[in-house]
Amino acid sequence: MSSVLRPAAPEHDPATAGVERDGADGGERRPQPSPSPTAGRYRPISSHLAIAPPVSVVIPAMNEAQNLPHVFKTLPDWIHEVVLVDGNSTDDTVEVARRLWPDVKVVQQAGKGKGDALISGFAACTGDIIVMVDADGSADGGEIVSYVSALVSGADFAKGSRFANGGGTDDMTFIRKLGNWALCTVVNAKFGARYTDLCYGYNAFWKHCLDEITLDCTGFEIETLMNIRVVKAGLRVQEVPSHEYVRIHGVSNLSAVRDGIRVLKVILKERGVTRAARRRGAGTLGVKVARGETS
């Protein structure tokens, strides 16, 4: 799968396709060459950039109806599809999503946990690039262009970082920052990574990377698992500065101590697991993603 950068095509008037005026006075027209057969495959991102790969955005959500209007408002209109994974919401999350984005693909989550939701969403994606976006309003969809630019420029995995130059966060306590730093330091030391942020869920990657990082966990620790396995698989990782905002409505299910312990367990476990052994012992969730099967 090739990475492609192309200048965006200028505004095109179908009524004048294939012809050009000889002069400014609108006189005689002369035939023009037909457009390139690949011209229609490029999606304009800005006046200077267009891409060929279709982009899928995966949004795991449970009772986020109040936040979705803000989340969807920030999404760029050039993306290929939005995959909303509904975690058995008791509010009108699905109805709101369909009203805001009529073509949204809704996946009903069978299991529990953010990891399980993301795995289900990944399996339903048809785009070449997958972007992970939280439904609480903390992520700015306008940053997706930065992630996609990193991927089409040669990266396999574009990892969001709140602590890279240009990033930031409005939603981390001192304890969470300290824990994130400590866990990030351990991962860098044990796996040869150079991360500035570890426990952040705003990431993007080429879909083919799922064949290299079999996913087999169901909780918040899935983000750490992905970060570790892309390094172990030798994939090209580029950090993308990102700003995390405060959740708009509702209360987060994140627990600094409980989820921190789960992340630490993943780190310790991965240190002794080879890639071959991981593939041999992959569970149902990992197999489902690797084969691109939906639940």
Describe this structure as you would to a colleague.
It is built from 9 helices and 13 strands. It has helices at residues 68-74, 93-100, 114-124, 144-152, 174-191, 222-232, 256-271, 275-280, 284-291; strands at residues 19-21, 29-31, 43-44, 50-51, 55-61, 81-86, 105-108, 129-132, 157-161, 168-169, 203-206, 237-241, 243-244. It has a 7-stranded mixed sheet with strand order 7-6-5-8-11-9-12, sandwiched between helices. β1 and β2 form a beta hairpin. The longest helix is centred in the middle third of the chain and has 18 residues, at 174-191. The radius of gyration is 21 Å and the shape is globular.
Please outline what is shown here.
The chain has 295 residues and is an alpha/beta fold. It is 32% helix and 17% strand. Strand 3 (43-44) and strand 4 form a beta hairpin.
Q: How much strand content do the residues show?
A: 15-25%
Q: Outline the biggest β-sheet.
A: 7 strands, mixed
The end-to-end distance, rounded to whole angstroms, is: 26 Å
Spatial strand order of the main sheet: 7-6-5-8-11-9-12
Order of helices and strands: EEEEEHEHEHEHEEHEHEEHHH
Q: What are the segments in which pLDDT stays under 50 over at least 5 consecutive residues? A: 1-39, 280-295
Can you tell me the overall shape? globular
| Tally of individual helices | 9
* Estimated structural class: alpha/beta
Could you report the average pLDDT, rounded to the nearest whole number? 81
Radius of gyration, taken over Cα atoms and rounded to an integer in Å: 21 Å
Helix proportion range:
25-40%
Secondary structure: number of strands: 13
